[in-house]
């Protein structure tokens, strides 16, 4: 019985990491990337998201609850996990390790990001280009956010690989190798988008380098 519950929890954890949490990550990066087109373009995109119908219900049931479950159960997995060198070999074992490390870091990073933006907005602050530019006026926050972006994109991309394996999509060594190349491509593409957005908030000219 406990084994069945564990199996279900891990399946659900894997699924929520892709849908909806992973999709929200991609959407969030796309909105932030509008900063490369200037302050007005970003503000327009951000305000569009703020004015979506049933916004609070969408945030609660499609973002916060799935994200909380994924984070809490992910911490449980991270602190009780054992290395699986014998099963996957050296490379996959390191991906397994880094997946756990980035997951723990992301709990801290996302909590801080929500506090600086979403919670601040609840107290009357406006989430706009100026808010983000003010955050990135601190060099420490620039480094913190860049590390956060890299951790988030790695965690999502590598999580996609694990999702494909655990859900029986990639069952052969060849298909898993192809999935490795695909997810690495996703990692680099999303990292580029995320860091370019950060540079645009710091200095729009840097995003065009």
TrEMBL record:
Coiled coil: none annotated. GO terms for molecular function: metal ion binding. The keyword Membrane applies. Signal peptide: none annotated. Heme binds at residues 28, 70, 113, 155. The chain crosses the membrane at residues 12-34, 54-77, 98-115, 135-157, 178-202. CDD domains: SQR_TypeB_1_TM. This is Succinate dehydrogenase cytochrome b558 subunit. It comes from Halalkalibacter alkaliphilus. The lineage of its organism: Bacteria, Bacillati, Bacillota, Bacilli, Bacillales.
């Amino acid at each position: 019985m406990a084994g069945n519950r564990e199996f279900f929890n891990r399946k659900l954890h894997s699924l929520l990491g892709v849908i909806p949490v992973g999709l929200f990550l991609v959407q969030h990066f796309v909105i932030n990337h509008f900063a490369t087109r200037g302050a007005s373009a970003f503000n327009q995109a951000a305000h569009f998201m703020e004015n979506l119908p049933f916004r609070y219900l969408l945030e609660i049931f499609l973002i916060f609850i799935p994200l909380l479950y994924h984070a809490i159960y992910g911490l449980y997995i991270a602190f009780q996990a054992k290395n699986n060198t014998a099963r996957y070999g050296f490379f996959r074992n390191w991906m397994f390790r880094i997946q756990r490390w980035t997951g723990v870091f992301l709990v801290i990073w996302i909590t801080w990001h929500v506090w600086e933006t979403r919670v601040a907005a609840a107290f009357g602050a406006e989430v706009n280009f100026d808010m983000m530019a003010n955050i990135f006026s601190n060099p420490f926050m620039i480094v913190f956010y860049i590390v956060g972006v890299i951790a988030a994109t790695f965690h999502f991309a590598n999580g996609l690989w694990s999702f494909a394996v655990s859900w029986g999509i990639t069952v052969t060594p060849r298909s898993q190798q192809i999935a490795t190349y695909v997810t690495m491509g996703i990692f680099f593409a999303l990292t580029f988008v995320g860091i370019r957005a950060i540079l645009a908030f710091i200095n729009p000219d840097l995003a065009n380098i």
